[in-house]
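Figure 2 data, in text form.
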Amino acid sequence: MLMPAGDLKSDLRSLNPSIFASKWMFERVPHIFENDLDVYIAWKHQLGTLLAVDPRAIIVVGSAAVGSSLNPAKNLRPLQKDSDVDIAIVSAHHFEVVWNWLRNLGAERYRFPRDVQSWIDEHRKRLLYWGIIATDRLLPLTPLAPRWVNALSAMSKKPPTVRREINVRLYMDFNALRAYHVSGIRELQQKLNA
C-alpha cells in the first residue's frame, strides 16, 4: 500500500532531512512502481544491463519515487501522467568518463548551441561541486551516448515508465547522492515551516 500524501507532508515537517531521504527515496519501492518490489527489481536489472551499471546503483528519485515533487517551487505537486522519471546512477567510473569529457572540451564547447553551453557552465559552477552530472541535456554529446541514449529510449517503452522521459543524473558516490537530495529537502522544509 502506498503511503498517503498526508504522511509525506508530516514527515517533511518532522524528520531529519537525511532520514526523510532514506524513507521516501532511497530505501523504498518508488511510488511509480506501486509497491511492486518484483517489478522494480526487474526494471532496474534490465536498465542496469542496458547501461552496464550494477542495478543496486540505480535509484529512482524525485516525484516518481515520492509521489509528489520535492522541488520547492512546485508545492508538492503530485506525480502526473506525463511527468518524467528521474534516475540517480551512482557510478564513479561513468561520472569520471563524463567529467573528463567536460574538462577536456576546451574551445569545442563554443560549437554547441547556447543552451548546451549554459548547461556546461551550470555544471562547472554548481553541479560538479555536489558530485553530480545531469545528463538530460548533455547525454547525446557525451562518450556515454551510443549506449545510454538507446537504453533510456528502450526503458521508456517498459511499464511503468511507458511514454515517460527518463532523465539520469550521475553521482560520483552515495555521499554525493545523499548530500544533494538532503540539501533540497532542507530547503523545502524551510519553505513549509516558514
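Caption note: The longest strand covers residues 85-90.
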